[in-house]
Write a structure and sequence with these properties.
This protein is an all-alpha fold and 144 residues long. It has six helices and no strands.
Amino acid sequence: MKLDEIYALWEQDSRIDQLSLSNESAKTPTLHHKYYKIFSDERLALRKLESEYKQLYLLKYDYFTGNLDRETLNEKNWEPNPRIIIKSDVSMHMEADQDIINLTLKIALQKEKVFLLESIIDTISKRGFVIKNIIDWTRFQSGG
């Protein structure tokens, strides 16, 4: 799911109809289920990306140190590294590698989605208190 799709869903679901607070209160478990399912899926996707990163990191390390076999080079459609890189410079080359950068950016985006969903779930967990505060405020305004 895209980050913008999560924002759009939450924009709709975060609204509380003050004229129907009992219905809004009853929606809380459904909202929690909905967003926890999305959260679980996105967290699993993050774990998958982190695993892919570890595998790519090892492949790129072997690539930059000249230890990657020809079969893997062909499989990945990579040319052999034409330069000899000393071990102390390998991390610098890996950080600048476009494949590593692209996967790092995907992980950052995925982490942002997971963080947003954690925040949404936290807000849903506090929804009952918000509804109670609305009821108390309405009662106070009407003199009761």
